[in-house]
Predict the structure.
Amino acid sequence: MKKNTHHLIIALSLIFFITTACKQEKKAASEDESVTHNVEKEVVETAKPKITLEKLEGSPSYADAALVLDTPEDIKAAKSGEMEFSFNVENYELGAQTKGPNAQKLANSGKGQHIHFILDNQPYSAHYEPKFKKEVPEGVHHLVAFLSRSFHESVKNENSVVVRRLMIGNDPKDTFGLDMKAPTLIYSRPKGEYTGKDTQQILLDFFVLNTTLSENGHKVRATINGEQFMITEWAPQVIKGLPMGEVTIQLELLDETGKLIPGPFNNVTRTVTLKE
């Protein structure tokens, strides 16, 4: 009897040992799988580029540069078609390459400094001479034109911009209802297609009218491929870490509570394309 009991104890001990060993082995395997999964996840997250937004520094200020259009605030024309615009440019050279490091860092126009001509907050046309003609359809339109560096950063001072209302036709209809004295956001960059090294650092730039930006006041919210950034200073920004392909940029002008400021141009979305 004692012998059988001794054998039973040995058998039970052996079973306990085997069971414990199996549990420890499964636990170790589970931990290894968890570590492997975490490492793989970390590698995937590291491989995905992180979009960043940072203030652009180092551009010449051109504080005394001016763009002048010698017309009334409301420009009237009896019929649609080509209109001639004749600007005066002071203390600024159209066609010159902007000095400093940013012309090498960012997409840069080989034609040099120019005017960004923006009608109804649509994509701008670039003009390297002060006089040119533009096709303007019938209706009430809102013109914003400002000086631009060769790498498309706007010159930001009270004299570098021209704002006009164009009233084209015998009885033009105002489909925008823009108060030209109200806080207004005008989109400028990015625009179009970027290739090669120009995809690495992309300028984000805009013009604000009748307001200033601050931590506790009005702000611009930039949403880039779904990622949000709050801009509290009117300054050019550089976007890094964008993936190849189509990129979506939304800009919104917000009040001090974070609500969208009413206005036809204060919420704008554009797409650009990045290629190898």
About this structure: The radius of gyration is 30 Å. The longest strand covers residues 81-90. Helices lie at 2-47, 102-105.
